[in-house]
Structures are given as C-alpha cells and as structure tokens.
User: Fold these one by one.
Assistant:
Number 1:
Amino acid sequence: MNDDVWLVIPLYNEAQVIGDVVATARAVFPHVVCVDDGSSDASAAVAEAAGAVVVRHPINLGQGAALQTGFTYALGDPGMRWVVTFDADGQHQVSDVVAMLEKARAESLEVVFGSRFLDDRTQASVLKKIVLRAAVGYTNLTTKTRLTDAHNGLRLLSRGVVERIDITQNRMAHASELVAQIGDLDVRYGESPVHILYTDYSKAKGQSIWNAVNILVELILR
Amino acid sequence: MTNLVLIQVVLMVAVLAFVARLFRSNGARAQAIRRLGLLLFAAFAVVSILIPNVWNRIAHVVGVGRGTDMVLYALVVAFLSFTVTTYLRFRDLETRYTRLARRLALDEAERDFPQEQVRTTGAPDSPTDGAPTA
Ligand SMILES: Nc1nc2c(ncn2[C@@H]2O[C@H](COP(=O)(O)OP(=O)(O)O)[C@@H](O)[C@H]2O)c(=O)[nH]1
Ligand SMILES: [Mg+2]
C-alpha cells in the first residue's frame, strides 16, 4: 500500500527525533526521502538507519532548497504519483497524511494543503497565531489561492504538480512561493485539517517569530 | 520648504526607479546602464574637481540650498542602488550554487526505484530519449 507516495522530509539537525519520525512514517508510507542539509549532528545516519533514503546537500542551502531537491529525487521514481512534504521535528501526524490522500483521491484534487485552523486541535501561542493569520492574509492577497493557513509544512502534491513546480526561495519564503506557483497552475486544490504538535522540542528549535520579517523581505526583493 | 519640491521629486523618482528595478532586472540592459552610469559618474567627478562650484550650481537648478546637500543626496541614491544591485547579484549567485549543490547531492544519492528497470538498461536521461538509434 501507498507504494506510489513519497514523503519528502527536509532535515537539519534533528538527530534526536528523526529516527522515530522516519520509523513511524514508514509503517504507513514505505518511501521516505530525507534531504539532509549539512547537519552537524548524526541526523543523516539516524534517518538512514530508520530506513529513509538520504540525499545530502554538501552545504546548508535551506529548507526550500531541500524540498526542491526532494521533489527532483522523487520524480526519478516512475511509480511516484504523490509527494508529501513532511517535517523532521515530529510536529506532523501520519494520520493527517492518510486523510489528505483520501481527500485528494475522493475529490480528485491535485494539491491538498494542511491547515491548522480548520479545527481546534492545534495549540499555538497567541503571537504565533497573529503572525500566521497575517501571513495567510498576505498569501491570499498576492496569490490566486484562498487558504486558511500559510507556512504549513504539511502538503500533498500530485506528480503533475511536482513536475511543474520550481522552488527558488531557498529559505523560509519557499512556502509562499509554493502557494503562488500552485495558484498559477490553476489546478484543483483543497485543504485538510492537520494537527501540528507544539512540543517543547519543536518550540525550542522552530522558527523565530522574527522570521516573518525576513520572509517578507525575501518575497519582495525577488 | 517649497523650493525643495523639485529635489524631492527627483529623489523620489530615483528611489522608485530602483525599487522597480527589483522587480524587473534584465541582464544586459541593466548592466549596460550601470556601466554608463559609472562612466558618467567618473566624468562628473573630474568636472567637479576642476570646477568645485558646479555642485552649487546644480543644487540651485534643482532647488537645493547648498552643493554639499546635493552631494549627500546623490550619495544616498548611489548607495541605495549599490545595495540593491549587490543583493540581486548575490541572489543570482545563490541560485547557481544551489543548482550545483543539488546536482551533486542527487548524483551521490542511491537510486533504487523498483519500476525503473526499463530506464536503467537504456542510455540514462539522454535528451535523445525516444529518438531512433541509427
Ligand atoms: N534541509 C533543511 N531543513 C531545514 C532547515 N531548517 C529547518 N529545516 C527543517 O524544516 C522543518 C521545519 O523546520 P522548523 O524550524 O521546525 O520550522 P517551523 O516548524 O515552521 O517552526 C524541519 O523538518 C526542519 O528539520 C534547513 O536549513 N535545511
Ligand atoms: Mg517545526
């Protein structure tokens, strides 16, 4: 089952958790590719031991660049029909991916975006919610898509979409770029509720809220 | 205050022009304009060394009180343009080395796709895919 799905996991210094994340994911989705971005810890080795394919960037390029590398890798598999972008830090749920796939198949969608705001499972801080809402507003204003969440790392993309996407924003602005490119493709897309776990581990490591400013600058100064 | 209007307009147009360049920077023309600008700048530097008063005269023409203010404004604009150009050049460079690094990473990665046998027997990824072999 799910032989036609590839999980693409951008990986950067997550040795503590990546083993569990890969093992849990592979119980349902056997094909997992981790794009290690010059981690200084044992991330790559741990991911490999857990059964993931590891593609290693020789230097750190950023999460966006890693996703594009993972896409290109997955496209090499002629049997691939779907790509899922999945975080390495244990914030994403495999069960959410299963629901996204079911939704895509049932409604013949090409893209399913995960959204934290379609139900109330996700507990984010007030400040994080404000920044995310602002990001949603900006994305909806500047792209053809209408979404309820932005910068959510959990997405499902069909092969046809992956073939036509080209992420050039190496760092965090890639999330908005991805949405914009999908909007331009005029494909059928949908949203599916996902539960993002804000564990102490992920909160300590995750993006600083200040990155919202950096993302905006990167998007404007294209 | 009112006699500053012209310089304000000039500066704002300059700033807007650079912002516009952010969105539409096309290689050859942008480079040529930059170089012409540099040439003009050098020529003007010589002129202003020979005739220091030239700055004052320009300042009066565009409605600025003193030549030194005029020099300051010109520098601000020049610096802004330098910043933007440098940023764009770094982005371009980044795109290139990203492609290079990605190529390296993918070439070194194991590729073990069960359905790929058909391809591995033929020429790998050649652009002549599907073309009859003589
Ligand atoms: N390849 C790569 N992955 C990264 C980089 N920075 C973060 N990541 C990964 O991207 C995912 C999300 O990152 P995170 O910092 O948790 O972002 P947040 O969840 O949006 O706060 C995780 O899987 C990280 O390991 C990077 O520079 N390169
Ligand atoms: Mg995270």
Note: The radius of gyration of chain A is 16 Å.
Number 2:
Amino acid sequence: MGAFLELKEVHKAYFLHGKRIDVLRGVSLDIEKGELVSLVGASGSGKSTFLHVVGTLDAPAAGTMRYQGRSVFDMNDAELAEYRNRTIGFVFQSHYLLPEFTAAENVAMPALIQRQDRVMSLRRAKELLERVGLGARVEHRPGELSGGESQRVALARALMLAPSLLLADEPTGNLDPTTGEGIHQLLREVNRDLGLTAVVVTHNEVLAQSMPRRLRLLDGRVQAA
Amino acid sequence: MTSWRAPLLTVGGLLAAAGLGFIGYGLYRADTIAMAAGSTANFTVGWGVLLQSWFSAQWVLRFHDFRSAMAAVEHEGVRGVARGIPHVWGGLAVWFAGWAVIAAGIRRKPDEAEGPSAAVGAPLYPPLARFQDFHWGTLGAYCGGIFAAQLVLVFGYLASVKMLPQIGAFLLCLSAGGLIAFAGGFFGAANSKRLSTPEATIAVLYAGLPIPIFLTLLHQQPAMALLSIFDERELLAVRSLFHEVMFLSSLLGDNMPALGYWLVYGFLVLVLVLGINLGFVATSSGRVDLRLSYELFVASRHVSVFRPRLIGGVLITLLFIVVPPLLLYAIATAANAAVEMTRIQKLGLKDPLKAAAALNLLKAKRQGPTAMMTALSVGGVGVGVMALIIVLSVMSGFELDLQQKILGTNAHGVVMKYAGEAMPEYPEVMKKIGGVKGIVGQTPFILNEVMVATEGNIAGSMIKGIDPKTVGSVTDLPRYMQTGSLEGLTDPSKIVAPRLAPLNEPALDDAPTEKKKPELLRDPLIEEAPHDAPDSAKLPGLVLGKEMANSLRVTVGDRVNVVSPLGSELGPQGPMPKSRPFRVAGIFYSGMFEYDSKFVYISIDEAQSFFGLKGVNGVEVKVDDIDDTRRIMKAVRDVLDGYPYRTKDWGEMNANLFAALRLEKLVMGIILSIIIVVAAGLIVATVIMLVLEKRKEIAVLKALGVSDGGIVKIFLTEGLQIGIVGSVLGLISGLVWCLFIEKYGIKLDPQVYYIPALPVRIEPFQTALSVVIAVLISFLASIYPALKASQVEPVEGLKAE
Ligand SMILES: Nc1ncnc2c1ncn2[C@@H]1O[C@H](COP(=O)(O)OP(=O)(O)O)[C@@H](O)[C@H]1O
Ligand SMILES: [Mg+2]
C-alpha cells in the first residue's frame, strides 16, 4: 500500500480561443497521513486548479490519484459525492456559505447530506461553532456575519464530518492580518487535535514557513519549497 | 470546429426545395399523392420500411410473379404513373444536388498547429475514456418499452375484452402498457445514467409513432395502409378489431376514430418520459436512492412556497376572482406603508436606533423577483386546476341533468322484436320479464310518427300508446303532468276543461304570460265549445307536452286532429292519410325540450285501433340500478330466449347524444389543460431563474458532497412543490366554487337553456384526475431546469463571483 494520498502524472489544461493553457503538467506527489502541507506559487500558477482536482471538483485530463489505495478518478458520481462528503473538507478564499441557511445549518449541511438526524447534527454544529469562537452567532445568516466570522463558519463546516483531508485555498486571502492569524491558529489546532491531513494554499510567507512541509507550484509541477 | 459558407447553404437549400417541388408536381401529375403520402409516412418512421417491404413481398407472393403484381397495381388505379415519372426522377436529382451543395458549404476547420502536450503517455482520466454519447442499450430499452407497451395494449385488449367488460379490459391493458413503457424508460435511463434525449426521441418517433400512424391510415386509407395483405373481408374484420381497440374513440363518437388512440399514445409517451426521469434520478449517481431529506430542506428554503401569506393570498385571489383581492391588497399595502412610515418617522425622533431596526425589518419583508415568480406560478397552476374542475363539474352536471331527464321520460330499457314486428303476446312476455331480478317496473307501448293538427297549426310528433295504469312504474310521466291527468286517456269524461276556471291557469303554468295571452283571449271570443261540445265529450283523450301545446295553442279540453301517413284510408283520389280527432286530456312538462315539443300520448287501445295493430310494439322496463342496465337487459334477453326479441338500454338509445357530450367534455378538458401548460411554462421559468440565481450554491452543495442526482432532486422538488401547492389551492377553490354554484345557483334564462340554473356535479375521479395531471405537468416542467442545475460544474459555480 502506498501513501495516504498519491498523485501521479496529473495533467490539466484549459482551452481558450483555440489556445491551450497547460496548468498542471504532470503533478506527482505523495502526502502522508497527518501531514500539514503548505502550497505556494505565483498567482495563476494553478494552485486552485490543483486543489480542485484533488477535491474532485474539477476533472483532470490524465493521471491517477489514489486515496488510501483507492483510485479516486475511477469512482462513479455517487462515490465521488461520498468522497467529497466524508473525506474532504473544503475552505475557499470566499466562505461560500449558503445564504438561506443559518450559521448552524450551514455547518450541519454535510451531515444532513449524509442523511444524519437533523437535531443531532445541529447540536454538533453548535459545538463546532463554539469551538471556532462563534457560539453567539448560531442563528445568524451569512449576510449578518463579518468576513472573518464567515470564514470561521466555513472552517467549522469543513470540519463537521471530521474529514481526513482538509483542502484550504487561501483561507485568509480576503482577511486582515490579525483575523487571518486567528484562522491559521485554528488550522494548526485542529491539525494537532484531530490529526487531520491538510493542504493549505497561501500567499502568506509567514504562514507557509510555519508549516512542517512546504510545496511550491512552478511550471505546472509541484516541488519542495 | 465547423465553418459555414452562407451562399452555398442558401443555394443548396433553394435547390433542394425546388427538387421537392418537382417531386410533388410529378406525384400530382401521376395522381399518386395519396399513395405517396401513405408510403412516405410508413418509410419515414423507420421500421415502416420493413413493414412496407413485407407488404410488397406479400403483394408479389399473392400474384406469384412481379409482372402480374405490377399489372394489379396498374389496375388499382395507378394508371397515370407514367405521366409523372420524369418529374419525380428529375426532382429527386435536383433534391440530392441541393443537399450536396449544402454539404459542400459546411467544412471542418483544420486544427491549429500545436505541438503534442506534456500529457502524452499519461493514463487518460477514466470518465473521459468511458464517455459515451449514445447508448444502444438505452435506445433498445426505450424502443422496446414504447413498442411493447402498444402491442400489449392492442393485443391484450383484443384478447381480454372477450372476458372482461370493455372499460375493465381497457384499463387493465392501459395499466399494463403504461407499466411496460415506464419500465422501458426506467431501465433505459438506468443503463446510460443519463436522460438520453436522442435515444428517447428516436424511440418515440421510430418505434412508437408508426403504430398510431398505421392505425390512422387504416381508417383514412385502409387499402393504402395495408397494401392488400388482407382481402376486403379480412380488412373489414381488422378494422373493426382496431376500432374496438380504440375504445376511447368509441366513447368519443364515430367521427374521430383515431383520436382515442392518439390520446392513448400520448399517455404512453408521458409514462415513458416519467420512467426515464425516475430512472435517471434514481440511478444517475450510481445507486438507487429516491429518498428526500436534505433535498426537501434545501428546496423549501429556495422556493419557500409554504409561506402563509403566499398560500393565503393565492387562495383568496382564486376564491374571489383575482381583481377584488388585488385591489384590497393594494389598498392594504398602501395603508400599511403610510402607517409604518409615520410610525418609523415618529420613532426616529425619539430613538434613531429603533427606527433603523424597524426600517430594516420593513425592507427585509419586501420580496425578491423569484418570490414573485413563485407566487405567480402557484397562482397559475391554481387557476388552471380551478378552471378545469369548475368547467368539468358543470359539464358533468349538464350530463347528469340530461341523463335524468332522459331517464324520466324514457324507459331504462325496451324489449322489442326484430324488424319492428308487433308483439301480440305481450302479456306473457311481461310475465317473463317480471321474473327477472332487477326489473322494478314495466309497461307496454306503441310508438308511431304522426302529425298533430289544430285549426291553423300543425306539428310533427311521436305518438305513443301507453297504459296509464302502469306507465308510472317506468317513467315519470304522471309526475310531469301539469294540467289535466292521464286518466283522461282511458276515460274521456274525466277531462276537465280549465276554461271553467280560467283564472287558475296562469298560476298552474309558469310559461311567460304573453305566450299564454292568445289562449286566454281566445276563450271568450271564439266560442267553439257549443258546436262541438256534444260529441267532443266522447272524443278519446290525448296528452301532449307544454311546448307543443304552446305552439299549437291548445289547452286541456281542446280538440286536436291526429294525422297518420301510415294507416292510410282510401279516399276519392286514392289513399288519404288517416285522421282522427282527439281531445287534450292533459299537458305535461318534463323540462326536456325534445319531449315537451314532440311527444304525444294516447291510450294503448286507441293506438291499436288507430294503427290497426294487434298487440303492442314492445315493452318498456325500469331497473333498480341504472348503472347495471346493460347486464339486466341481457338477463331479460336470456329469459326471452333471444331472437326474435331484442333489447336496448337507455345508453344505446341515446348513444350519440352521450358520445357527443363526452367528446365535448374531453375537448374542454384538453383546452383547459392548456392553462395548466402555460402555468407549467411559468414553473419552468421560475425554476430556471432559481437555477441561475443559485449557481454558486449548487457548486457549494456539490463540493459538500451532493451528487448530481441530489441536485436534480432538489430542483425537481422545487417545481413539484409549486405544482402541488398550486393544485391543492386550485382544488380547494374549484370545489368551493362548485359548491357555491350548486347552493346558490347561477340562474339561466329558461327560454334559452331550458334548465333553471347551472347544474353542477363534482365527480371525484375527474376532479382527482385534474389534480394529478397538474402535478404531473409541473413535475415534467421542472425536469429540464433541474437537469441544467445538475450540469453546473462545481468549479464554474465557485468562480461565478
Ligand atoms: N475556466 C478556465 N478557463 C480557462 N482558463 C482558466 C480557467 N480556470 C483557470 N484558468 C487558468 O488557469 C490558470 C491557473 O488558475 P488557478 O488555478 O486559479 O491559479 P491560482 O489559484 O494559482 O492563482 C490561470 O492562468 C487561469 O487563467
Ligand atoms: Mg487561486
């Protein structure tokens, strides 16, 4: 059995106006369980694309990816949905909360999608919100939260089902340094407490340096930084 | 990438059109348009080619060799073929040339020269490798489904109708066919895990359509459609078989034999589509999951139709016909705004913070465009269902009213002999009939056509000899008597001329007074009574309807002449119509114009002597359960050992009338369903708006682990919620309206409608059907937007900032 997450020869290109943009040109990478990885790279180098492919939100053109030995790209729609639901937790640059639902409902959504009991899920969601310091914002809608608060709700949502892989795409990119530092602190905490594996894309050099393993995306390939 | 060259396309298109024109002209010259149309219809629908070849082979086989077959074709009236042939061939050539030019106008652009990518040699992304645009298995399932469904329907019906009653057999086979179509759709979609629209289109057009086309051709151009695989006699048999299959059409009347089958076909296609959808929803994500939990949660937050304001508003709008509630709403909101604003202003002077909060609350209450659209769609569906229920109930009311009137004046069934033979042995016959279970009354009758004449007026009529003692056990005639009575038929001395008490007359008769006036005036002016008083007292009695009495201007005690063209007497210049005087013994009013203006009753003895008849024409019977008449009449027939006796029930006697009514109801139903279809259009627009609005949310949901099937389910439920809420509101308001019409009535002009108020009859089945159809249409309407929603790529949605 190979690594926890194993990518081989992953290629991805966009076609625009008849021109090909090679974004990923054979990314090969192993990530071990419990690793906290930072990914840096120039703007437009393909960091988001890489995370999307790993999170199966975007289809690559070629390559293989194994999660705990299972070939992810071979899964059908239901299995992919389940992979995203149980294995992956996403945090994006914007919070992407669902505007019709309260903070607690947003956090509980992954469990609801799994058809878990609504009351139980909401209870757990409230605990998570307290943990990220938002115990007083449980019934607020996303429109009634600040950027930093929303991002913390999004983090709580990503942690709802205790995923084994957290993918964070510039989670602090839209936040001021102090708020950003709070989020980073949280990330490190959950990594330490829950032992989850995380790949964090960031522009923040300080944060990148503070991660045990540092990667850089250059010319469509991932290298150690 | 393809590039199009417009000039070539235009020229090619024109050429092809000209070619078609030539072909048409050639066919016209050859006088073979009809035949060509028939064969083209067969050819264009795919396996029609096979059918046609098989027919042709049969044709050839029948005549042993090709030449005599062709000779037979010549003989069949295709003599002019030679005249059109050059034009047809020329036209074909031009037509193909046109297509060639069009093809030349479409070119594939060469790929831009670019080096091989870095990915050469890497393993292809598996879904890319698996990608398949067309699934033969799915095509097979769809085709098999729609084709087998029809075969089962047609042949199953033909087989089971021998054992079951028509409706039972039809419903049984329709359900079986529907099940097969559904299964075909379900498994086809499950096989491809997509909706597979191209496959479905091909199936519906190529495997499904030929059968209804074939059946229609069978009726329009029997010889053409079957191309002589059957001889004349077989053809007739086959036609009548198919006619039976088109059970619906026999209900709809004889003028539209194929309509019934087309409706059935439409139903099967609908069921197929339903099956495809459920199959797709259930299995698209690789696993059957029809549960709705978070899907409903998300959907109800998206459309939020279950708001008391929306539901109450729509219901009130439907109940009080749109305009008053809207007006009320406008007034209320204006007043509310004025009050709120002044309140907030005042508040603002005291506590700005509270005022700001109040203002915020006010703004939050204002609804967005999607909420408006939702309300509109709910209202649209509601209006459709309501209109459908009201109109169909009123039409059912008319039908019931008509049926009651027919059953009041008509017997439930009659027993007669073939060829209208007289029935002198009727006492024995009646004894036998009386023993049949379910018969509750019977009376003998004689029926003939005569003219009824007074001085200056004449009216054609049906004269019926009745037995006044027993006629009441079969029809409501005694109850319908307005003036005089049936006793006067047998005992002329019982006839009481109302002119002795003329003041009573208007009170007894509710006809408009001006119509009555001539009679009232006539009494004192033209004193007829003295000169025919002595013998007119002995004249036999006759009862006629109110309308006829009005048009003949006679009343009880007046003398009328009955003239029969049949029982002619020999006069000085050869045969003369027989004429006999009668005295009006009574006037009846049944409320059915046809009877009140046409029917005249005399006693059976008088009728026998007048028409020189021994016995009677037949026996009328009344049964205990009118819905069971057909079976009871069959029992009567069995008791009488069939021939020469025959029976008819009320349905058969008025078959055309009821068929016309039902056709009218169906057409009304179809027309009104268009309202629902329009409402469905609103649903499509609403859900599409929702999908566009929620692109980002869809992407997020997918990232959180909702499968494509889940997204489809979310948006299907959104459309379905609108449909269900709208239908239920329409149902409630429709029923309320029906009850209102029934209770308080909408008065009709009795001169025009011959019915005092709009009749209403709520039929549970047809009401439920309206609701089910509306819900189904809403469901189908939301399929397309739901699919679009599921196709939103997560990355695209996440980028849509
Ligand atoms: N849908 C798309 N179509 C065409 N090009 C795209 C698309 N999405 C991303 N790209 C291109 O791919 C490259 C990588 O994008 P991205 O992964 O978002 O970069 P990063 O996150 O590193 O800033 C960029 O050059 C961008 O222009
Ligand atoms: Mg990015």
Note: Residues A 14, 16, 21, 23, 41, 43-49 surround adenosine-5'-diphosphate (ligand 1) (CB under 6 Å).
